[in-house]
Amino acid sequence: MDTEIxxxxxxxxxKARIPTKNITCILGSKYxxxxxxxxxxxxxxxxxxxxxxxxxxxxxKNDKVVVLVTDNTRPCPDDKxxxxxxxxxxxxxxxxxxxxxxxxxxxxxxxxxxxxxLLGRDIVENxxxxxxxxxxxxxxxxxxxxxxxxxxxKVVEADFRISTIRTTEQVALKGKVMNSKLxxxxxxxxxxxx
Length: 194
Hints:
Blueprint: E1 2-9, E2 12-19, H1 38-47, E3 65-70, H2 78-89, E4 98-103, H3 112-119, H4 121-126, E5 128-131, E6 137-142, E7 148-152, H5 153-157, E8 160-163, E9 170-173, E10 176-179, E11 192-193
Parallel strand pairs: 3-4, 3-8, 4-5
Antiparallel strand pairs: 1-2, 6-7, 8-11, 9-10
Helix pairs in contact: 1-2
């Protein structure tokens, strides 16, 4: 006798039939109710952060601001994070001074449909959203191990930078880069700005 198991796969799922005798147990996660009002919670975090001034107090009207977001290969709710971040910024900074950069790493640039799916149509159509371009970088120095460090020109030239990116450990294995920690626990996200 077989047991049918459904696995998440991309935006959908796939099913597999496994002999029941080969299954010891099936582990699942417990449902945890989310926040009643995510946008309000994010806005409150930006207005009353721990250990630094509110976001709107960190920028001035002439600042060039860069917001770094992850591409579509990692789970991050930027479509929910960005609207309150951008609203707080626009209390002081004109929209034309705000650039959203998709941090691609070694991945391919996103097309417009992928950007809309990632960030939402309103953001893509009303803000300057660009893919990181490896040909538009500035050399800023060398690490203690001799690795040259090049940073995106727009990031270097910005007066203020925000990152919503959740970093994960990466392991290089015979020329391939692999995540050493696979987790989609969104509770670990935080904002970084300076």
